[in-house]
Structures are given as C-alpha cells and as structure tokens.
Amino acid sequence: MPTVQERDVVILGSGPAGLTAALYTARADLHPLVLKGIDAGGQLMLTTEVENYPGFPDAIMGPELMEAMEKQAARFEAELLHQSATRVDLSERPFGIWAGDEEWRARSLIIATGASARMLGIPSERTLLGHGVSTCATCDGFFFRGQELAVVGGGDSAMEEALFLTRFATKVTVVHRRDTLRASKIMQDRAFANEKIEFVWNSVVDKVLGDGRVAGVRLRNVETDATSELALGGLFVAIGHTPNTSLFEGQVEMVGGYLVVQEPTTRTSVDGVFAAGDVVDHIYRQAVTAAGMGCQAAIDAERYLEALGH
Q1: 3 state DSSP class of 302
Q2: pLDDT at 277 over 60
Q3: Which of 12, 49, 152, 213 is buried most, with the most CB atoms less than 10 Å from its CB?
Q4: Per DSSP, what are the bridge partners of residue 223?
Q5: Which residues of 132-159 are buried (b: 16+ CB within 10 A; e: fewer)?
Q6: How confident is the model at residue 38 (pLDDT cuts 50, 70, 90)?
C-alpha cells in the first residue's frame, strides 16, 4: 500500500481564494497542498482585462494575474498539483481527500472550489455547445469575427461578454428575461453607449437553431408568449453560476448549494474546514473579495492548527 501523506493544510481550488490561502499558509510554514482542479485558475482564466483589481492601474489580463498569484504561492513552497479532488471524507480526523487513486490526510481543509457557469437547460443548447454556443467570450470571441452574436443575461458578466464581443462581431444582441438589467450602473452605461449592442427585453431563448452549427435562436416573449427568430453566428450564455459543492453534500452545511460560514470567519459547520470565494459568496463574486476570503481562511486555519498544538 502506498504511504498516505498527512498535511497540515489541504486547499481545494486555485482561483484568487485558493491561491491567496496557499500564499498565506505557505508563508506561515504550513506547507499547504493545493489541488488546483480541472478549471485551474478559476473564472479569471476566462477574462481579458481586469481593471478593478487593486495595484494594477493600467489593468492586467486575467490569466496573467492568476499566473502571478500561482508563482507567488509556489515561491513560498506551496505544493500545487493539477488534480481535482474526487472524494472527501470529513467524518474522520484527519480528513480524507482523494484524487482518483491518490489519497491525502488533512488536519485542516480550505474549500475554494468556486462556481461554474449556468446553462439555459434546453437540449439544442447542449447539442451545439462548442459549435456556436459558448459560455466564454474571451475563449471563443475571436472565432466569430464579422458575425452577428447574442448574449443571454442581464448581469455584469453578460454586459462584459457583450462589450468584449463587439471587438469581433458586427452586432451583439443582449437577450434578457426582464425589462431592466441587474448589472452595475457603470456596466449598463457602457453597454447602452455601445452602438453595436442592441437589447431584446422580456424574452428567453426557446431553442438554438442550426444543424451542426448555430444559425440563430428562437425567442419567446415571456409576457405575450409570442415567438420570433433571430439569425446569429453564435450564442453566449451568461446567466450566472452554480457553486462547485457536490463533493461536500451531506457533510457541510449549505444553503442553495453555497457553503455556509460563521461570519465574520470562514469556519464552516465542520470544525477544521474553512471555505472562501465564490463557493461561499453569491453576492459580490469579485476577485478581490475572493482573495480577501482566501486570506481569512488561511489565518483561520493557522489559528485552528495552533490551538491543536500543530
């Protein structure tokens, strides 16, 4: 049998929360193990310019910021593995964490697994995902140069996607189920001021049209039930996110899929388990707030271990 490593701190996730937690616990000489996950780097890997992260007056690219965070954590000897936890057992001490056949034991655990993009839930969307349907304008926008596109959603993410896509598209139509946007005023102002962006209000996408490739969408007005068709080269879905918490169901207290913490700390319902970032925060969902929570979780874990005599 292979030797099972026992660690003071294991961190699940490598977005701003996970990497900040790694930096702080590494500097505290706790030698953290970070299982980076499939979507290593978190949602900032899907963004272009980040203008609102403190310390970067000229903006910084999302992937560049995450690469710098990872290098900073590694500099203090955090161990980062490009693996995802496939199972956790929080009923034992130390906690059990598995990634496939590999197993670790953790005296403390920091959960920073983030959230995943939500889909519309219609069959045609899933069929054409990667064939004109996308959840990431930054990843795929370049491939739609000179085409008419649509973005579904009304929050900041949807406005960011729409604005980014105007770099490539001839027109971007924002489809929103309500008659007002949820986005912040600055993002609304930017979108309304962009002559390439048009809005279809009180409407949802009923069906994605196309045989093997997106050719358009069928829209349904939620007030009148009337349908119409819109010719498109691509559809970008930006309707929110689902926290990545399925591993912890039945083991940690949750509300609506989000982990519950004992504010102002990051302590969860399980002693020695801490949570930070979008896996907890469904209100702010910003890189800087996630990083701040990662710092809190690291300090909470350090104090927890110190109380245990480690």
Answers
A1: helix
A2: yes
A3: 12
A4: none
A5: bbbbbbbebbeebeebbbbbbbbbbbbb
A6: confident
Rounded Cα–Cα distance for residues 213 and 131 (Å): 5
Q: Which two tokens stand for residue 142?
A: 């370049």
Which residues, other chains included, contact 135 with Cβ-Cβ below 8 Å and sequence gap of 6+?
A: 117, 119, 236, 237, 238
For residue 46, the model assigns a pLDDT of 63
Helix residue spans in 129-214 (DSSP H)? 137-140, 156-165, 185-193
Q: What is the pLDDT of residues 193-231, one digit of tens each?
A: 999 999 999 999 999 999 999 999 999 999 999 999 999
Kindly name the residue from 29, 58, 89, 140 that is annotated as catalytic: 140
Q: Smallest Cα–Cα separation from 243: which of 31, 41, 42, 72? A: 42
The mean per-residue pLDDT over the stretch 18-34 comes to: 98
Helix (H) or strand (E) holding 104: strand 102-111
Among the options 89, 139, 179, 189, which is catalytic? 139
Lowest mean pLDDT among 130-139, 154-163, 267-276: 130-139
CB atoms within 10 A of CB 91: 9
- Average pLDDT along the chain: 93
User: Of these residues, 29, 89, 101, 136, which one is catalytic?
Assistant: 136
Write out the H or E segment, with its range, that includes residue 89. Answer: strand 87-89
State the pLDDT at residue 48.
62
Distance in angstroms (rounded) separating the CA atoms of residues 251 and 45: 30
Residue 123 preceded by cis peptide, ω within 30: no
Neighbours of 242 (CB within 10 A): 15
Annotated catalytic residue 139:
yes
Sign of CA dihedral 259, 261, 266, 268: negative
Q: Are 111 and 13 in contact (CB under 8 A)?
A: yes
For residues 109 and 273, is the Cβ–Cβ distance under 8 A? yes
Q: Express each pLDDT in 42-75 by its tens digit.
A: 877 766 677 788 999 998 888 899 999 999 999 9
Taking the C-alpha atoms of residue 178 and residue 158, their distance in angstroms, rounded to an integer, is 14
